[in-house]
C-alpha cells in the first residue's frame, strides 16, 4: 500500500530553498564555460560521474537484486525523459540566456501537476490550481511577445526559449513517470541512477553525432564541472527524489518559484544578461501561476481559518 504523502513542513521548506539555489546555479555554471566545454558534453559528463557513483553504491547495497525488483522498465522510460530534458537545456543554452532558461525550465511544476491530475487520484487539481495553470500559460505567452535583438550570448532567443519550455515539459513528465510507477517507492538512489545512466549514454553520443568541439579543460571549466557533478547531479537530485517519496509532489513546488528568481538574478549579476519588460512581466505571471498550483491547498486552509475567526 502506498503511504500518504505529507504536506510541506519546515524541514521540507528549508531543503527546497537550498535545492532552488543549487538548480538556479546550474544554468549559470553551464553558460559560464560553454566556450570551453559544450553544454551537451558538460551535462553528459556530470551524468556519467553520478551514474558510476550511484551504480557502485547500489551494487554494494543490493547486488544483483538491483535488477530484479521490476523497476527497470519504468526506470528506462524516466531515464529517457530525463535525458531529453537536458538535451533541450543544453541546446537551448546555445541560443538563449541562462536567466530565460531558468524561467522556462521551471515551468515543470505546471506540466507535472497536469500529468498527476490525469494519472494519480490523490493529486487532482482544484479550481484555484486550474486558475494557476491558466495564469502560468498566459505568462508564457506574454514572455514570448517581445524579444530583444540577437546578441552573441543569445543569437536566437525565441528558439532557445522554446527549447527551455520543452525541457520544462520533459521534467514535469519525468515527475509524473516516477509518481505513477514502481519508482514511486524505489530508493532515491535507484531512481536517480536510471536517469543519470540514460543521460550519460545519450548526451555525449549526441554531442559526437552533431560534430561538437573537443573540450578545453581550463580551470573554470574544471571548477564548473566539479560543482555540477557533486552539488547538482548527486546531492540535489538525490534529495529531490527523497522528498518526492515523502511529500505531495504538487506541494513540493510551493517554493520552487524561487529557482527562476534566483536564476534571473544570478544571470543578470554574473553574466550581465539583459532583462526586457515583456519577459519580466511574463515571468511574474508564470511564477504566480506556479504558486497557485503548488500552494492552493495551503491558501484554502488559510482562508478557512480566517473565516472561522
Automatic annotation (TrEMBL):
**Protein family:** Belongs to the EamA transporter family.
Q: Which InterPro entries does the protein's record reference?
A: AA-Vitamin_Transporters, EamA_dom, EmrE-like
Cellular compartments annotated: Membrane
Highest taxon, organism lineage: Bacteria
Q: Does the keyword Transmembrane apply?
A: yes
Residues annotated as transmembrane: 12-34, 40-59, 71-91, 97-116, 128-146, 158-180, 192-210, 222-243, 252-271, 277-303
Q: Classify the main location.
A: membrane
Specify the EamA domain's residue ranges.
16-142, 159-294
Keyword presence, Transmembrane: yes
Name the GO cellular-component terms: membrane
Question: Topologically, how does it sit relative to the membrane?
Answer: Multi-pass membrane protein
Identification of the protein by name:
Uncharacterized inner membrane transporter yiJE
Q: Which UniProt keywords apply?
A: Membrane, Transmembrane, Transmembrane helix
Amino acid at each position: 500500500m502506498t503511504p500518504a504523502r505529507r504536506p510541506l513542513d519546515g524541514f521540507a521548506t528549508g531543503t527546497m530553498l537550498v535545492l532552488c539555489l543549487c538548480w538556479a546555479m546550474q544554468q549559470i555554471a553551464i553558460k559560464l564555460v560553454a566556450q570551453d566545454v559544450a553544454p551537451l558534453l558538460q551535462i553528459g559528463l556530470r551524468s556519467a560521474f553520478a551514474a558510476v557513483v550511484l551504480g557502485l553504491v547500489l551494487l554494494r547495497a543490493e547486488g544483483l537484486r538491483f535488477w530484479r525488483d521490476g523497476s527497470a522498465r519504468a526506470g528506462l522510460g524516466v531515464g529517457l525523459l530525463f535525458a531529453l530534458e537536458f538535451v533541450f537545456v543544453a541546446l537551448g543554452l546555445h541560443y538563449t540566456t541562462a536567466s530565460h532558461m531558468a524561467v522556462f525550465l521551471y515551468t515543470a511544476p505546471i506540466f507535472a501537476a497536469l500529468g498527476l491530475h490525469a494519472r494519480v487520484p490523490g493529486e487532482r487539481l482544484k479550481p484555484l490550481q486550474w486558475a494557476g495553470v491558466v495564469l502560468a500559460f498566459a505568462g508564457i505567452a506574454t514572455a514570448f511577445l517581445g524579444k530583444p535583438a540577437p546578441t552573441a550570448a543569445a543569437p536566437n532567443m525565441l528558439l532557445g526559449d522554446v527549447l527551455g519550455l520543452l525541457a520544462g515539459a520533459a521534467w514535469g513528465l519525468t515527475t509524473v513517470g516516477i509518481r505513477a510507477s514502481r519508482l514511486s517507492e524505489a530508493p532515491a538512489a535507484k531512481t536517480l541512477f536510471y536517469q543519470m545512466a540514460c543521460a550519460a549514454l545519450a548526451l555525449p553520443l549526441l554531442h559526437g553525432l552533431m560534430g561538437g568541439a573537443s573540450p578545453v579543460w581550463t580551470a573554470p571549466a574544471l571548477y564548473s564541472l566539479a560543482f555540477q557533478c557533486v552539488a547538482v547531479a548527486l546531492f540535489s537530485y538525490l534529495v529531490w527524489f527523497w522528498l518526492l517519496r515523502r511529500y505531495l509532489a504538487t506541494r513540493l513546488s510551493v517554493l520552487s518559484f524561487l529557482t527562476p528568481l534566483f536564476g534571473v538574478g544570478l544571470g543578470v549579476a554574473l553574466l550581465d544578461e539583459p532583462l526586457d519588460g515583456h519577459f519580466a512581466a511574463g515571468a511574474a505571471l508564470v511564477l504566480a501561476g506556479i504558486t497557485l498550483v503548488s500552494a492552493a491547498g495551503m491558501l484554502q486552509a488559510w482562508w478557512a481559518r480566517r473565516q472561522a475567526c
